[in-house]
Specification:
single chain; 5 strands
Length: 124
């Protein structure tokens, strides 16, 4: 049986989720459910510990991006291994989810982009 471990770290202005294990058909329903609860604030998904992604794993990332967009929050991905990163590029997921080389880069991707968003970000 495959497993995925999820550690959630609540920061001042964002949430970081550390994932490890395998993102597959068996593990993704629980991961999707838990991520859905977290999309109310900017989210960094660190997948450097994920050893395997199948189609359900990639679909879970896409669904998380859609949920973040619906909530008006930002999402950034860190630590994607080369093969699943290539699949993300082929499928166009990289157009919806910034794939970052470091947590610091991901945090820059979470920054608000307009004056109103910056004002909301600073007052939040």
């Amino acid at each position: 049986m495959t497993t995925v471990d999820m550690v959630v770290i609540e920061g001042d202005r964002h949430t970081t989720v550390l994932l490890s294990g395998e993102m597959d058909r068996a593990t993704c329903p629980e991961v999707r459910s838990r991520l859905r609860e977290l999309v109310h604030r900017p989210l960094v998904l660190d997948v450097s510990g994920v050893e395997f992604f199948d189609a359900d794993g990639l679909r879970t990332l896409h669904q998380c991006a859609c949920n973040c967009q619906a909530e008006g929050t930002a999402l950034a991905l860190v630590g994607m291994r080369p093969f699943p990163a290539k699949l993300c590029r082929i499928l166009g997921l990289d157009r919806h989810i910034p794939m970052c080389a470091s947590t610091e880069e991901a945090l820059w991707c979470l920054l608000p982009r307009s004056d109103d968003e910056i004002r909301d970000w600073l007052s939040g």
